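Deliverable D5.2: sample structural annotation.
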Amino acid sequence: MNRRRFLSTAASGAAVLACAPRMFAAAANYDLVIKGGRVIDPTMRLDAVRDVAILDGRIAAVEASITADAAETIDGRGKIVAPGLLDIHTHCGRSGEGTALVLQDGVTGWIDAGSQGADHIAESIAVAKTAPQQGRVLINIGRAGILAEGDTMDISRADVGVLRDAIARNRDFIVGIKARLSRDVAGANDYEVLRRAQEVATSFNLPVMIHMGQTISPLPRLINLLKPGDVVTHMFAPPPNSIIDDNGHILPEVLAARRRGVWFDVGNGQTGHMRWDTIESIMKTGFWPDTFSTDWNANSRTTGVIDMPNCMSKLLAFGMSVPQAIARGTANASRTFEVFRDRGTLNVGAPADVALLELRSGNFEFLDNYGNKRTGNQRFFPSGTVLGGKRIARS
């Protein structure tokens, strides 16, 4: 190479190096930053105005002020920025449309609670496999699933052998067993249905979720069959066989169940599961729910359920604080099923699932399952969802 060509090449290289800092500076440091929201993360004991940065589908930073460039920015001012909501009792597995609807509500993980039994469990699993967010299923102990005439009114439907086979074939998506025990579902078979569910669950190291309330067997007899990690849903169901006695005291067997690690879940639903006077009595005892859930189905929008944020709002009028309500829809729920163990947090490195909520003040009407109305002065409204670091378009 002669001197002229060397100097020309060197000059070109210098020009490239001179441009390099500007080229690198133009590249975004983060994929997405949510700016200036009220970040509530119970896992970090955080309730403060913060920025949240996301990179490669993970939480990259939670700081008072993030000034680095981002490919996209969301204005979080005036909103609550929380981990994505986890709804542990839905019936999303009945319809693929439900998964997109609840995602709009900020729900980034859901459990279908027994829509189908062994005979048709492939239908619920197919929905979970194609859902945009994490979805898993509890298999109904009744092999035909939810039936108008009662899932296990015919005890032969609680077929242990068929249940074992279905779980073994679908272990990646079946995360527990659902036993609906109401008198119009199991009748006098309730105890035997639960015993069979536990027989199978124990062999697979799975939890059982029971649908309680209005059972024929006394609740203490059923509760005593529950093991650590099991879930009692519809915990606010009124008598007969509520979790409180006639004097408004929590049953000793219920207290013992919580001490040994049984979870108690709201399971809002539409029929027979919540009545304001029972809720008030239970909340006064300090025996508050571990988790919120909706018992969501295709009719929820037009009932007292509406959405997960609405269900979470109902206990604000009974003394629950906003951070406590958020915890029951995020951090607490993440501990109930293994699939959610890395969710329910905005800690650095966690999957970037985020719910943006508006907390509005005013007079809001809430419904129980008996047509009774109650007014509250605060309500959560869904405002936006980030799933795996990507903003979900609002419909």
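Annotation notes: The longest strand covers residues 373-387. Confidence is low (pLDDT under 50) at residues 1-26.
The annotation will be released with the project's public dataset once the embargo ends.
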